C-alpha cells in the first residue's frame, strides 16, 4: 500500500460484487469447507450479546474515505465514524476493527470473525443473497479525472462516446459497462490498477479521461502529486435513459433483523436531523452524496 489511496479499488465494481458473493454465499472457504449462511432465527440475539459484551467487532477493508487504518494505527473513515455513533446509541461503547481484504469481508462475516461489515459496501442483488444490509448511508456518483481545464469538455459518458475519446478506468469497474452502454467502444477503454495509475496515464497523454466513483477521485486528488489533473462534477450515470443509482451500507449476518432494524432506526434519525452529513463531511461527503435509497430497492438491482 502506498500513498493515501489503496491499490486496486475495483472492489466497487460489478465483478468485485460477484467475487465477494462467490466467496461468501457459495461457502467457499479455506480447505474447501462450506459455511452455513442460513442465519439466525426469531430476529437474532446479536444486539443483546453486543450490549452484554460492550464491544462490536467491525470488519473493514482499507479504502479511504470509506474506512481505513491511518498511519497512527487508528481506525478512521466515514463508515466507522457513522457506525461508532450508532452503536454507542445502541448501548455498545467499544469498537474492535478487523482489517481484511475486500473479497474476504463476506466470508469473514459468515465465519464470525466480526459482527458487522463497516466498509461502505455497495448493496446489490447478488450480495443481498449473502448479507443482510442496512439502508445505505450514501449514494455513489461517478466523475472523470481530466487534464486541467477539461479541454474536451467532458461531463458524462455520452460526451466520451460522441467525441471518440480514449477513456481509462479500473480493472472490472462498473464504469466500463456504463461507458459501453452509452456507446463508447471497448477498444477505446484502457484499464489501470487504480486512480493514481490513471492520473499518470492521463498526464502522459495515453488517455483523455479516467472514470470512477467521485469519492475515490476526491481522495486521489488529495495527494497533490498530479497538479495537471482535475475532476469533473459528480453525476449519476444513465444507461438506456435509466439512472444507475448505487449506494453503500452496513452488512449483518442473515437473520439478524433485530440488530439491523435498530441500526436503521438510528441511521434514519441521523439522516433526518442532518447529523449524518455533519459526520460524513470531513471525509469528503457532501449533500449530493446523501440518499433516500433503501436496501430493499438496491437489493433488486
UniProtKB/TrEMBL annotation:
Coiled coil: none
SUPFAM superfamilies in the cross-refs: Periplasmic binding protein-like II
Keyword annotations: Signal
InterPro entries recorded: Ectoine_EhuB, Solute-binding_3/MltF_N, TAT_signal
Protein name, per record: Ectoine/hydroxyectoine ABC transporter substrate-binding protein EhuB
Pfam families attached to this UniProt entry: SBP_bac_3
Signal sequence annotation: 1-30
GN (gene name): ehuB
Lineage start: Bacteria, Bacillati, Actinomycetota, Actinomycetes, Kitasatosporales
